[in-house]
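[RESIDUES AND BACKBONE]
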Amino acid sequence: AHLSKPYWNEAVTCTAYLQNQLLRKTIPLYTTRFELWHKKKPNIVHICVFESRCFAKILDLLSVKLDEKTQACIFLGYSLVSKGYKVQQVHLGAILVPQDVIF
């Protein structure tokens, strides 16, 4: 990753999340930690590449008819408290947790 040291925490958190979703050679064989805990297979459709470029949807309340509907962001990981992605705005540097993201 090309992010500076303050973002290493995000990379480690993202790695831990992914390790919980991936298969392990454990007892019972070839199950995930998620599957052992929740008794169902994880849905991995939402898995994305760390530090990839993405576009987060801007809330309709904040935009006018002809304004842009998305903003350029960098993917930093997955939200631990809600169903959303953790992204950083390219221009402002603010970290957001939107649910609607285009990769």
About this structure: Residues 5-102 form one domain. The beta strands are 53-57, 70-78, 85-89, 95-96, 101-102. The chain has one domain: 5-102. The radius of gyration is 16 Å.
